[in-house]
Amino acid sequence: MIESAEAAQAVVAATRYPPAGIRGVGSAFARASRWNRISDYLSTADSSISITVQIESAAGLAELENIAGVEGVDAVFIGPADLAASLGHLGNPQARPVVEAIEGALRSLHGAGVAAGVNAFDPATARRYIAAGASFVLVGADVTLLARGAEALTQTYRNDT
Fold first, then answer.
1. Which of 6, 70, 104, 158 has the most CB atoms around it within 10 Å of its CB?
2. pTM over cut 0.70
3. Bridge partners (DSSP) listed for residue 138
4. Where do the domains of the chain lie?
5. Which tens digit of pLDDT belongs to each residue from 74-113?
6. Could you say which protein family the record assigns here (predicted)?
7. CA of 140: how far to CAs of 61, 120, 152, 159, in Å?
8. Topology (CATH) of 5-158
């Protein structure tokens, strides 16, 4: 969870090799370098990294513009459940103030040219967030998709007996 530009800067620094950052140079053991088989990996890695920071609190939302303005931050993802809790609506990410706060954040990010993401498992909410400027929307989660598929498969065979 990111709540300040300084925290976002620390994330970016942790993903960049010196002198641009503080990332350790253990590329011989890194899958990204194909275990040291990419000869120019250290000099080209920074250009292939995408940084998405996640905002899940009122404090982070208040610093949204500063966080999004950090060089190296490519996208901001809004976490509705934790944001709802932070805004006093624990367990209710559909609460009007939460949805409005998310829509405002998405509009702001879109206007700033920063990719903006959010999760919305309700189709109407997903469409609302897309209309507000979301660049990407998580509309399903692996565990729930797997569970629903398993439940449907179970019902198929349960109904056969």
1. 70
2. yes
3. 119
4. 5-158
5. 999 999 999 999 999 999 999 999 999 999 999 999 999 9
6. Belongs to the HpcH/HpaI aldolase family.
7. 24, 8, 16, 27
8. TIM Barrel (3.20.20)
